[in-house]
Amino acid sequence: MSRFAYVNGRFVRHGEAAVHIEDRGYQLADGVYEVWAVFEGRLADAEGHFARLWRSLDELRIAHPMGEKALTCVLKEAVRRNHVRDGLVYLQVTRGVARRDHAFPNPAVPPSVVITAKSVDRKAAEAKAALGASVISLPENRWGRCDIKSVGLLPNALAKQAARERGAIEAWFVDDLGLVTEGASSNAWIVDSEGRLRTRDTQANILRGVTRSTLLEVIREAGLPISEQPFTIAEAQSAREAFITGAGTLVMPIVSVDGVALGDGKPGPVATRLRKLYVQKATEKAC
Questions:
Q1: Which residue from 43, 149, 180, 206 lies 20 to 30 Å from 159 (Cα-Cα)?
Q2: Residue 131: is it exposed, middle or buried by C-beta count within 10 angstroms (0-12/13-18/19+)?
Q3: Which of 69, 149, 276, 281 is catalytic?
Q4: Residue 149 annotated among the catalytic residues of the structure
């Protein structure tokens, strides 16, 4: 079955999709991206992803390529053309194509837009979640604006590779104070020794995770104790449970941190319950 990508105003076969060699996203990482989970052919957490997209574009002074209604239509068309029932849809917006120069093009050029969509095997994902996954820790070495969902992801890519080479699914960055900031592509959570859910607050230069935000709603609706408070690797290793959240992983239980097993080395009841509650809520809210 052929895949299709949207590139600057038209859908083309995935294998033929391309951007100009002087696209500033390609040459300067001058762009942002968003990823929506797709449940039953619909966009999950759509409102939160759009809000973060507009904010990232505004912070980098990149023009909005189109209005939200129009962009929603294009995203849904990408899902439809690729026959995605459950999966992910990826959007990238760059400052556009211009002769290479670090300063912004003057006059401004139209932003470039790329959209792709792919299916995810939810049964396989649930099987993986039932087993749990591992994380490693690495020193924080990213730029100072991690609140912007920039395409400049080299430190994240290197962290992911380091995790993979050590048999882990994710790497947690640790700041100069010894506190976990977030994962290379996820937010980090623990259930501490007192039974409180803990995750770092978004004022601490971390990405404002959309899955994270929806899960906070779920947690409060469930009446579970929650504290937006950072934690150390040692606290994570002695925690009752840990998990990560993101559009790709949803709520993924973590059973090992830097080689130290948590509890009995199996996904805990809180993370397992929250995964089910999140999927239920995200599916209900999907558009």
A1: 43
A2: exposed
A3: 149
A4: yes
